[in-house]
Design a protein that fits this description.
This protein is of the alpha+beta class and 468 residues long. The protein has 2 domains: 109 residues, no CATH class; 276 residues, DD-peptidase/beta-lactamase superfamily (Beta-lactamase, 3-Layer(aba) Sandwich). The strands form 3 sheets. The chain has a 6-stranded antiparallel sheet with strand order 6-5-13-12-11-10, with helices on both faces. It has a 4-stranded antiparallel sheet with strand order 1-2-3-4. Strands 7-9-8 form a 3-stranded antiparallel sheet. Helices cover 38% and strands 14% of the residues. It has 16 helices and 13 strands. A hairpin with a 2-residue loop joins strand 5 and strand 6.
Length: 468
C-alpha cells in the first residue's frame, strides 16, 4: 500500500471522511433519512460554529470546509439560513430533513434536540490569562530562506493538485515563536476548528485527574450501559478508550451509516449512543480508531469533575488553560452536557501551540508547575499494539510503516502529533525542542502531511543552524 493511500486511510477523520460523496449517495439509496440527517446536522453545526465562534464567512466556510467533507454533489443539495438575532443556523438536505444548531457564548454550538439539557449560561471564552509572550501581534517572518520556502510550500496551491486551504502555521522553538503565517481572513486571534485534535485535549484533562489521584488509567470505565452480569464490556478500562483498543463495534468508516456519523450529528447524548454498541472483540487485543471511545471517556471525566458543562469548563480553565496561558478556547458540549472531546475545540493557532509545548516540556507549565503526571507524556506517545497511534496522539514510536516513513522524511523518531480531519495538526518534537501547529481544510490523498514533513525537516535544520 502506498504512503499517500495509507495516510488517506489513517489520517484522523473525525466525521469528515465518513461523509465522502460516494458513500453518501450509497447511503441515500438504502436509508435516505439517515444520510440526510447526518448531512443536515453537520451543515448546521459547523456553519454555526464557524459564524458565531470563529467569526468566519458562512459561504466561504461552506465552499471550503463543507465541500471538502461532503463533496460538491452533496453540497449542492444543502441549504442553510443564519438567524443572527437568535444566534442559530438552520440547515436542510434535499428538502428531506432539517437541523438547527444553537450558539451559546463560551460554549459554542450544539444541535437542537428535544432531549437536550438546558443550555449553560453564557460565558466568555478563555481569557488571555497573561500577555501573549510568544511574539508581537504581527506575523514573524522566517529569516531562513529554506524555512521560508517550506512555509510557502505548505500554503501554495497548484493547478491539478489537491486543494490545501491552509489557514495557519505557527512554529515555536523552546517557547520562542520563530515563524508564523495566516491565510487571508485569518489571524493571530482567529479560533480554528480542531476536529480530532480535541482528543489530545481529552488526554490532557485525563492526565490532570490522574495527577490529582482522582482516576487511574488502568481502572475500569464502569459505564452504566455495561453493568449487566457477564457483560464483556465491563472489562474496558480508561486506557483502552484513550488508546482506541476498546473492542467496541463502533468503527469510523467512509459511510453515512458510520456509528460515529450518527453519534455526532443525530444524537443528543453522544456518549450514551457510543456506549450502547456491542463488543466485537476483547479490549486491548486490536487497535481500531473510533471517536466513540473518546466520547465515552469524556462522559466519565465530566462525571468525576462534576457540574455539567459549566463545571468541566471551569476545571479546564483553572487546571489547563490558565497555567498554559491558552487564550481564546471554546469547548463544545453535546445535549447531555458532555464535552465533545472527540472533535470540537476552537482556539487560535498559538493556543494550540501552547498545548504542544505542554507535551514538549514533559507536562510542565511555563512557570515549572506540574500539569501532567511524571511519565505521562512518554506513556501518551507510546505505540498502541504496534499501531501508529499512542494515547490521544499519533506517534512515530513503534514498528509501523507510516511511522518509519515519517522518520525517513525528517520527522524524528521521538516525534508525535495531535491530528484532526482535513489537516489540523500539532507536531511535537522533544529532541529538537520544536512545536509546529498547522491548521486548514486540506484534501486527500495526504491532507497536506507530505508538505508538513518537509516543513518539519526545514524547521529542524534552520533552528539547528542558528542555534547549534
Amino acid at each position: 500500500m502506498g504512503y499517500d493511500s495509507y495516510m488517506a486511510r489513517m489520517a484522523i477523520r473525525s466525521i469528515g471522511a465518513a461523509l465522502l460523496a460516494i458513500a453518501v449517495v450509497a447511503a441515500m439509496w438504502f436509508r435516505p433519512d439517515r444520510a440526510a440527517r447526518v448531512i443536515a446536522g453537520l451543515t448546521a453545526h459547523n456553519l454555526c460554529s464557524a459564524v458565531f465562534v470563529a467569526g468566519l464567512d458562512a459561504d466561504a466556510t461552506q465552499r471550503e470546509q463543507l465541500q471538502a467533507i461532503l463533496g460538491p454533489a452533496a453540497l449542492r443539495l444543502t441549504a442553510y439560513r443564519i438567524d443572527r438575532a437568535h444566534s442559530s443556523v438552520d440547515a436542510s438536505f434535499a428538502g428531506l430533513v432539517h437541523a438547527r444548531a444553537q450558539f451559546t457564548p463560551g460554549y459554542g454550538c450544539r444541535l437542537a434536540y428535544p432531549q437536550n439539557l438546558p443550555a449553560p449560561g453564557a460565558r466568555s471564552t478563555s481569557p488571555p490569562f497573561a500577555p501573549d509572550d510568544l511574539a508581537p501581534p504581527n506575523a514573524v517572518a522566517a529569516s531562513d530562506s529554506t524555512l521560508a520556502a517550506a512555509i510557502e510550500r505548505v500554503f501554495a496551491e497548484s493547478a491539478g493538485e489537491p486543494i490545501k486551504n491552509v489557514k495557519a502555521v505557527v512554529i515555536v522553538k523552546d517557547g520562542q515563536l520563530i515563524a508564523e503565517r495566516y491565510a487571508t481572513g485569518f489571524g493571530v486571534d482567529t479560533p480554528l476548528l480542531s476536529y480530532s485534535v480535541a482528543k489530545s485535549f481529552t488526554n490532557a484533562l485525563l492526565g490532570i485527574l490522574v495527577r490529582q489521584d482522582r482516576l487511574r488509567a488502568d481502572q475500569p470505565v464502569n459505564a452504566a450501559e455495561w453493568a449487566a452480569p457477564n457483560d464483556r464490556r465491563a472489562k474496558i478500562t480508561i486506557e483502552d478508550l484513550l488508546r482506541m483498543q476498546s473492542g467496541l463495534d463502533a468503527a469510523e468508516s467512509e459511510s453515512a451509516f458510520s456509528p460515529v456519523a450518527l453519534m455526532e450529528y443525530t444524537q443528543a447524548d453522544m456518549a450514551g449512543f457510543g456506549a450502547r454498541h456491542s463488543a466485537k472483540e476483547p479490549p486491548a487485543t486490536e487497535w481500531e480508531y473510533t471517536s466513540a471511545d473518546t466520547l465515552i471517556l469524556d462522559r466519565l471525566l465530566g462525571q468525576i469533575v462534576g457540574g455539567g458543562a459549566a463545571g468541566m469548563r471551569d476545571f479546564a480553565d483553572r487546571e489547563l488553560f490558565a497555567p498554559l496561558h491558552m487564550a481564546g478556547v471554546t469547548m463544545e458540549f453535546d445535549g447531555a452536557g458532555v464535552f465533545v472531546g472527540s472533535s470540537y475545540v476552537y482556539a487560535p493557532a498559538r493556543t494550540y501551540a501552547r498545548l504542544g509545548e505542554l507535551y514538549l516540556n514533559d507536562g510542565l507549565a511555563p512557570d515549572g508547575s506540574r500539569i501532567l503526571p511524571p511519565g505521562w507524556v512518554a506513556w501518551s506517545r507510546r505505540s498502541t499494539l504496534g499501531s501508529p497511534y499512542g494515547a490521544g496522539f499519533w506517534t512515530n514510536d513503534g514498528p509501523s510503516r507510516p511511522a518509519a516513513r515519517r522518520v525517513a522524511s525528517g520527522f524524528p523518531k521521538d516525534g508525535f502529533y495531535a491530528s484532526g480531519d482535513l489537516g489540523q495538526r500539532i507536531y511535537i518534537i522533544p529532541s529538537t525542542r520544536l512545536v509546529v501547529a498547522r491548521f486548514g481544510y486540506s484534501m486527500p490523498p495526504d491532507y497536506g502531511i507530505v508538505d508538513d514533513l518537509a516543513l518539519i525537516d526545514a524547521a529542524i535544520k534552520s533552528t539547528e543552524a542558528q542555534h547549534p
